[in-house]
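User: Sequence in, structure out. Go.
Assistant: Echoing your sequence, followed by the structure tokens.
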Amino acid sequence: MHKIMRFFLGALSLLGAGAQAQPPAADAQLSRGRYLVATSGCNDCHTAGYMQKDGQVPEAEWLTGDSMGWQGPWGTTYAANLRLLFQQIDEKIWLARARQAMRPPMPSPSLRAMSDDDLKAIYSYVQSLGPKGQPVPAYVPPGEKVTTPYFDFTPKNLPPGK
């Protein structure tokens, strides 16, 4: 009887150890999404103060957008609050949107170079953070008045022909 009991206890401990050693697929996808967000520069624009604080912004504040504008010949754009945006769209819409050209300074070519699995991981991670923050200001077309601070990307002193 003791041998049977030890066998079952040993088998149970092995099952438990195996389950802990391999995280569920969902956890792996969230980890991958977090990694991609952290290494692809998403926070540089979509998290207020991230660059100025050398990335020392709590994860709870990530991807809540920024009211600092990015102005150039395209007008003035603002880095969206992805945590609110991703609550309003599903994964299929995100995949389609990530494949489209976007206004600067969004690195659209970088998004288009990502695999669907990478984009799905980003979507899952941002979704897991939950909604937080406020919407950012709306896009301002070229020549219209901007009332927020902005970075000016208007080319100056270009040599002729550039």
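User: And one key feature?
Assistant: Strands lie at 69-72, 75-78, 150-152.
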